[in-house]
Amino acid sequence: MKKHCYALDLINDPDLISEYEFWHKSENGWPEIRKSIISSGVTDMQIYRTGNRLFMIMETDDDFRHEDKKIQDEANPVVQQWEQLMWKFQQPLPWAVGNEKWVLMEQIFGL
């Protein structure tokens, strides 16, 4: 198992943040998105929020590759629809590269 942590900012607007959280409740999420995540080798995913900053913790099988997930997502029209919807709420971190949304975090401490 591998663990990956990511960060992303939401647009700092309470109404947009509320709507973003609505779409991430299990009863409102798109089943195709859940299926896409699981089929890529993700075994667990959690998103936490403080203010407008999000942290995502993703556990994957040992064969998971970010590059493969990106290719799979780009070829999936439903994932592309979801990503387009999510851009309404999200803004890249100042140090994000290109059209990168979620930025991979570097672990600096472990117990």
Specify the CATH class.
Answer: Alpha Beta
What is the string of SSEs from the N terminus onward?
Answer: EHHEEHHEE
Tally of structural domains: 1
Instruction: Name the average pLDDT.
Output: 96
Low-confidence stretches: none
GO molecular function: racemase and epimerase activity, acting on carbohydrates and derivatives
InterPro entries: Carb_Metab_Mutarotase, Dimeric_a/b-barrel, Rham/fucose_mutarotase
Organism: Arachidicoccus ginsenosidivorans
Pfam families: rhaM (PF05336)
List its salient traits:
111 residues, alpha+beta, globular
Describe this structure in words.
The mean pLDDT is 96. The protein has a single domain, classed as Dimeric alpha+beta barrel (Alpha-Beta Plaits). It is globular, with a radius of gyration of 14 Å. It has helices at 14-23, 31-39, 66-74, 77-86, and strands at 2-10, 42-50, 53-60, 90-91, 103-104. Strands 1, 2, 3, 4 and 5 form a five-stranded antiparallel β-sheet that branches. Strand 2 (42-50) and strand 3 (53-60) form a beta hairpin. It is an alpha+beta fold. The two termini are 18 Å apart. The protein contains four helices and five strands.
Give the arrangement of secondary structure elements.
Blueprint: E1 2-10, H1 14-23, H2 31-39, E2 42-50, E3 53-60, H3 66-74, H4 77-86, E4 90-91, E5 103-104
Antiparallel strand pairs: 1-3, 1-4, 1-5, 2-3
